[in-house]
Amino acid sequence: MFAKLARTGILIAALGVAGCNDSSMKDFAPEANKPLPDKILADMKAKGMVRTSSVMARIFKEEGKLEIWKAKTTGRYEMVASYDICKWSGKLGPKYTEGDRQAPEGFYTVRPSQMNPRSNYHLSFNIGYPNAYDRANGRTGANLMVHGACSSSGCYSMTDPQIEQIYAFGRDAFQGGQTEFQIQAFPFRMTAANMARYRNDPNYEFWKMLKVGYDNFEITKVPPKVDVCEKRYVFNQVAPEGTTFDPTGACPPTTQPDSLKSAYNAYQSSYDAAFTGAVKASVPAPKPTIAGIKEASIVSDWSKRRARGERVPIDPPSLNSDGTVTETARMGRIDSPAGRKMAALDAEKEAKRKAEEQRVAAIEAAKAAKAQALAEKEAAKAQAVAEKEAAKQAAQQPVATASVEAAPAEPPTDESRLSKIKNKLLGMFGG
Fold this sequence. Notes:
- The chain has helices spanning 2-14, 22-26, 38-46, 132-136, 160-175, 192-197, 204-220, 258-280, 292-307, 337-405, 414-428; strands spanning 55-60, 65-71, 77-84, 87-88, 106-110, 115-116, 124-126, 145-147, 156-157, 181-186, 226-229, 232-235, 318-319, 325-326.
- By secondary structure, the protein is an alpha+beta fold.
- A five-stranded mixed sheet has the order 3-2-1-10-5, sandwiched between helices.
- Strand 11 and strand 12 form a beta hairpin.
- Helix 7 crosses helix 8 (258-280).
- The protein starts with a helix and ends with a helix.
């Protein structure tokens, strides 16, 4: 039933879509014609896939992964390759406006005409932004790619060897008759634990909508049929014959296979229990996310000024939760007349700042030198006084001694003379 639903979705999507023509497939550059490695081909064969079977890609920003899934002979898909994304720009959250440097999130479609074998970024393909949902919600931007060269300003960038393989998966599927393949771009793996982590994020309602499509694929392992009505995504819904899905209009009454409804309800019941448990558990802190259209507009303005050649902060500004804007102090220099003019003004301002710092430093140095000289003078003066006092004391000490030694003897008294005569007489007579 799931495989039948997938074939129905492909048929509906193929209406009005031009198939791959010979010139578009033969006009590839050499790197676009490289075959997949033997190891991948052997793995595909073991999983019941052929080289030209249908393909689908999934992207997870937070985990930095790009997955390639291919259809097996049963019609269900299985992952055949996973790549580390070299670079993606912006934060978690959707792309809102031209220049916000956000890598898109949502469900996108790649057709042969979107493949670029002569990209300035080795190889690339346009993911199809803006899609019907983006346009219905007034979101703008263009030329959002998956490409090589490991450089991104709104795209998903891979290494050159990686993009050669990813490109080959799409090329081979188109050669096998697939008219378009789906790219599902998510902020993170939409597990109960991750959804609980981001339950207070301003993008949460958007992510809950994407999760319905994520869950449909997890259940069926078939790319969901994607439509847009009432400015929102709807998945695997079949409208009555003669009615269509209007991206900005009311959703038509729809039906869905009972088996899918039953499987989805069971899946959701299990998820709800896991979510409740995850809310109570200790989980890693959320990663930075874009704060809606307001932050996107601030970054977009930064991008426009940068494109005009103005000298702007090296990194895009960020909107804080309290409404303030944070910008990095380090400035980027753009080589243009306007950029050079701004750089000259900044250089002049910097020179004045340094001159003022040097002037203040010179004044402070002069004050310190004066204070040091005064302190040294006072110290010398104090030392001179001390030396003079010591000399005076040293001079007074010998004079005092001499006066004591030179003092005349006192004249003898009568009593002392009689005592001496008496002692003499006693000596004479033996007394």
